[in-house]
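Dear colleagues,

I hope this message finds you well. In preparation for our joint manuscript, I am sending the Nitrite reductase (Andreesenia angusta) sequence together with its predicted structure, so that both groups work from identical material. I would be grateful if you could confirm receipt.
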Amino acid sequence: MKNIVIIGSGVGGLTVAQTIRASDSESDITIVGAEDFYPYNRIKLSKSLEKDVTEDELLIKPKSWYLENNIMLLKGISMKSISSSEKKVYLSNGKSLKYDKLVLASGAKSFVPPVEGVDLKGVFSLRTLDDSWAIRDYMVNVQNVLVVGGGVLGLENAYSLAKQGKKVAVAEMADWLMPKQLDREASEILESKLRDAGVEIMFGASASKLLGGDSVESYETSDGKQHPAEMVIFSTGIRPNTDIEIDAELETNRGIVVNSKMETSVEDIYAVGDVAEFDGRVYGLWSISTLQAKVAAENILGIGSEFKDGSPMMSLNSFGLYLFSVGNISPENPDYTLTGDGPSYRKVVVKDSMPVGGIIFDDANKAIALKRMIEKGQAASREELEAFLK
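The corresponding structure tokens are as follows:
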């Protein structure tokens, strides 16, 4: 029997606990979460801007699940330090926990660029349930909103606010939406949906300055023009929570550095999810967090498992459409690129006789099939792919 302590109550930490408990009914499992809530689905936070959402509606597991599975959940408590020599974690409530295996799944915080005026009232990022409630409370008397960042979360925020009757603008530095995941044609389809909903999109633009007295009233773009905005939401990426006090050399770079077993540089300490860095990369993806968590759990169980760097993937089910992107959509020297002639846009990129990337609109089954094809390195002829895209 082991003492397993998990720091972080997001999907990564919860998946570690669930995976271990499925095979080990004896070990003590404790999840320590800094938020005052049961583990909830962060992916749904932007949609919570459209209506009042209770904590229960966002939960990943029912509240009763933890007691039923003999998992101790400590809410509203953060980790202060780690003593690897004592194998103890010291907590913000003054108590400590002994561990045999420790999993760091403490996630990340929103990155807000150091723009003048970011400390004004009415400036937000959306990362937690508290953030969501604060935005909903503040937006009641707001008419003009700026969303900085045209990634999935930023666009979902913009769309949700536009549905509430707000005049919303999105500032995106790139020349089109999500250039790493979408080509220009796919971006234009997405852009059209957003404009139909009343969202203005400014490409090659950023907020260079936020203006106002006590609260934000307007913003200035890099061309020197000023635009009204009583609320600004930054959706400009994340930074892993790597500020950890420990009595050993815990290797960090952008995140906590791990190997393929999700082991850190300190014995019996693992890291998963948004806080972890594998092979120089911090993923910031729900799907990767769950996969890494399962790998860490299986190694704690002694099964032996390795994380393999899978194909980058993005899915979006909003704005009245389903959109999926997987793999590398713009590799160097591809063999060829195919686009479907069906009612919705579809694209597959082929290199070395194998699909390496693709974009699928409005067909979840084809999206799953393409993902499997790419991850397996499955060769396919041009004729087979043309039939697939129809």
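For the figure legend, we might mention the following. The chain has a mean pLDDT of 94. The first helix runs from residue 11 to 23.

With kind regards,
E.M.
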